[in-house]
Amino acid sequence: MEQSWYTRLALVVLVGLWSVWQLVPSWQYFRLPPEQRLGDAYDASVPGWAPSSKKHLNLGLDLQGGIHLAMGVDVDRAVKAKVARRADEMAEHLKSKGIAFTSAGPDATGLRIVVATSAPDQAEKEGLDFYGSELYSPVGAPAGQVLFAFKDQVLREFRGKAVEQAEKVIRNRVDKWGVSEPDIKRKANNQIQIQLPGFKDPEKAKDLLGRTAQLEFKICDDENPALDALRSQLAACPADRSGLTLPLPDGGCWTVETVDVPRLGQRQATMVVANKRPEVEQVIAQKILPLLDPNKNAVGIGETVVGQDVERRTYYRTYLLRAKTELTGDYIANAQPSVDNSGPGSGKPVVVFTMSPDGARLMEKLTTENMGRRMATVLDDKVETAPYIQGRISTSGQISMGSARDYNAMFEEANAIALVLKAGALPAPVTISEERSVGATLGPELVKKGTLAALVGLAAVLVFMALYYRGTGMVANVALVLNGLLVLAIMSMIGTTLTLPGIAGFVLTLGMAVDANVLINERIREEMRAGKTVKQAVQQGYARVFWTIVDSHVTTLVASVVLMNYGSGPVRGFAVALTIGLIASMFTSIVVTRVIMDFLTRDDSARLSV
Amino acid sequence: MQFKTFDILPHGTKFDFVGKRHIAVVLSLIVNLTVILWALPAIHGLNMGVDFAGGTEMEVKFAQPVDPAAIRQAVGDLDFKDASVQTYGAESDNAFLIRVGRIALMSPEDVKRVEEAVKAKFPVTSSSFNAEIGDKLDFQFSTPVVPSELQAVVEGAGVRVREVREEAGLTAGTKSFAVITQGIRDKVERDLATRFAAAKPEVRRVEYVGPAVGRELRNQGFLAVFYAMVLIVAYVGLRFDFRFSPGVIIAIIHDAIVTLGYFAFSGREFNLTSIAVILTVVGYSVNDTVVVYDRIRENHTKYKGKSLVDQVNLAINETLGRTFLTSFATALSLVGLLIFGVGTIFDFAFAMLIGIVSGTYSTWFIAAPMTVWLEERAARKRAAGAPAAAATK
């Protein structure tokens, strides 16, 4: 045999072995009963030499049950609320400048501010000074009135931020439920798509997701040593010099953080950390709350993310808070990430926020009384951040991001916090525009029927090829089985979601993969009829048919790629299966069958049944 | 040299495909026009699924046999006006598909009644309800109200309340409440559970699509089919010759319409999966055409002396076996889906089968003869143009 044949044989064998290797996690995954698939039993069952246990085929919502929701964010309402808030601030500002006006509020469109005043020129000047970069004053206001309109770009920004905030809020809520592998995506037209595999109660999901966010400010009670008693009730967290050893032991453990306390200096405050939020909640309910006076203290849960990409791990921690909600997000007018340009922290990312007039008074009192303490911002029962109060805050304040970290990470965090602050400040109601829920009993039945349908389809094709083409049919069948394995292996590798239409797509690609072999075999027959030797016929058959196979695959690929961009959910699963199937089919029909055929026709006198 | 063959189709056939093109064109035109007319909403229309029409669809399975007429009666009694009930899957499955054309349970009359009751009791500054969003009423009050009292008033007006939720007010001083009332799913589920308690109804699947989303999905779906066609035609044009493009265009439009015909005439649900089938048919039906075109091109250089009609006929006849066999093999893979598939998946397989058959037919009788027709037309034009050009000289 030629040198190139051995190279090709090696390639084919390698691809075959790789496919089997890649399918090990999926094999283990589907062997387990559904309720164990997400637990440690599965992780432990994947042998060390196999690919990461994360790389398995996923069942789509239609096959395992769950909820798919598309929620529309009511951006118009969010923008109008924002304009109304601006109008309130404008009124405060004009009052403070001593300008007489009878009313200031949104106009009929809800998108502009109209001020009725006897001194329009002064009011216009002051108003534009106040929000000069956002507003302009359109001509044509009736006598005795000043109109302020928002620049298009500003309105666009309001809308965009409203969706961004809504997404963040939804993400927080879903994380809190402990749904495994939720998928939350922002789509066109102010839509957010949420997929909750295995989640059973669509009404509950809709209720919880439909609420507008609640933002609260609470003071951290770092002086209180009550939690130190936990040290005898829980295990201490394993840690080394670089920090906690992750993942944490199941059920949570205690550790300490160094906190600054006014007048007392630093102390080691005890906190509980765990891998999952429900674990922390359980410790709080069973061990922490009995230690506390509910009128004085509350416990908040925060999330800490360490590492990046694959190393990225999340754990949950407690914050000991004072029970009283000092301020709510309703008092925040605006917040944005910025860069500190004053004092020792100069050049670092910060969050700058502005309070509404009422809020400013409350904030001033709060910060004066609690200078040097930490103030937790709690969004939807999750402590987002707990910075130290370093100065008196009234109308506007800033939150610093800690020290000595990479600039981008800090800026990212500043942006996230700004969003959170605004999320409370800006009501962006969400409404359900699409809901698909599949009960738990339907899924397994569909998996069974789908698998059966795929096997019957495969068997029909295999039998036909073997009967009609005999020897070369068997060659094609070897390629076909390898094709099936390869498709599943690629799908496992990229973590594709297998849906019911996806199974149909998979079956269809098996049929299409055979097409290429039919073309090759028919061409070989033709060449043989023309009087060529078997070897020549095989060589010329493959050479002539190569581009035909490419062309026929590409046209179907075009359609499946278009479909991949169009569809979502189950239909997308079909398109993905079809696309991967077509690519695999090109490889198996051209390379794999050729290696075997070349081997069978190595001598000029070879016989072949086609 | 020895080899064994056995052919389903004899090779060396000399069937005159090009000669039959007039009959084929008339036949195809009739079929295509009928499908288009039948699919027009004014005449019959497609049975649009919730994906495209918007609305609520529920799959309900009973543990014991239930008379379909009784289910129809029960759903009819709920007074949805636009509800439909059909059996789903095999009769022994005891499963039904219930579809309601709207997504909000409350009728405009209900909304009006609730609004009046609330206005009579509380200082309402504004209220809103959107039937395209669902069973939710928004109220703004000038003074705070107690949620439980609000709930009692709404229920007093005859509408079941799931939750009253305070929302952030639009402007300072106003109080905003959302009243979420009972939805369609809840209503149907409760009603069936009481009426057919013995048969243990179970809601296995609910699909609910807002009308705006439905319209968008539908438009995008048709656009996707259009883009795929344009890209495929461009590819074939680039790889072969743009002279072949008209044949490909006509053939794929033909196959897409015939596939659509399955949904139009069977009355089966037209949804996202149907768009997936049509797209796949469009991509797949070109395969055969490519094979024949490839052979036409090969024969064009090989048999220079022969007429174009003969070259094309020869190309189709020479590739007859493989065109048939490739389609047959792909169709075979669908057998399992046809046997075990229920609902959408069965429709997928059946429509795909029709698309495959149509693709084979259009390759033989439409796409390939089309090239002959175009060449003849071009030749006539040249002939007509030449004397005219000579005359002006």
What topology does this entry show?
The complex is a heterodimer of chains A (610) and B (393).
Chain A (H helix, E strand, L loop, with lengths): L2 H20 L1 H8 L8 H6 L12 E2 L1 H4 L1 E8 L1 H22 L4 E6 L5 E6 L2 H11 L4 E2 L8 E6 L1 H26 L5 E5 L3 E7 L4 H9 L4 E5 L19 E2 L2 E2 L8 E9 L3 E10 L2 H12 L8 E10 L6 E10 L4 E2 L3 E8 L9 E7 L1 H13 L5 E5 L2 E4 L10 E5 L6 H19 L4 E9 L3 H52 L3 E2 L1 H30 L4 H33 L3 H31 L7 E2 L1
Parallel strand pairs in A: 1-23, 14-20
Antiparallel strand pairs in A: 2-8, 2-22, 3-4, 4-6, 5-6, 7-8, 9-16, 9-19, 10-11, 12-13, 13-15, 14-15, 17-18, 18-21, 19-20
Helix pairs in contact in A: 1-12, 1-15, 5-7, 7-11, 12-13, 12-15, 13-14, 13-15, 14-15
Chain B lengths: L2 E2 L16 H19 L7 E2 L1 H4 L1 E7 L6 H10 L5 E6 L6 E6 L7 H14 L2 E6 L6 E6 L5 H10 L4 E7 L7 E7 L2 H12 L6 E8 L1 H29 L5 H22 L2 E2 L1 H31 L5 H11 L1 H14 L1 H6 L3 H49 L1
Parallel strand pairs in B: 2-11
Antiparallel strand pairs in B: 3-5, 3-10, 4-5, 6-7, 7-9, 8-9
Helix pairs in contact in B: 1-8, 4-5, 7-8, 7-9, 8-9, 8-13, 9-10, 9-13, 10-13, 11-13
Task: Write a short abstract of this structure.
The complex is a heterodimer of chains A (610) and B (393). With 610 residues, chain A is α+β, with helices and mostly antiparallel strands. Chain A contains 15 helices and 24 strands.
What's the number of helices of chain B? Answer: 13
What is the architecture of the largest domain in chain B at the second tier of CATH?
Up-down Bundle
Oligomerization status of the protein chains: heterodimer
Report the biggest beta sheet of chain A as strand number plus sense, adding barrel if it closes. 8 strands, mixed
Largest binding interface between chains = A-B, 93 and 89 residues
List descriptors.
heterodimer, A: 610 residues, alpha+beta, Hypothetical Protein, Haloacid Dehalogenase-like Hydrolase, Chain: A, domain 2, 3 domains, 4-stranded antiparallel beta sheet, 49% helix, 22% strand, B: 393 residues, Multidrug efflux transporter AcrB transmembrane fold, Alpha-Beta Plaits, Gyrase A, domain 2, 13 helices, 11 strands, elongated
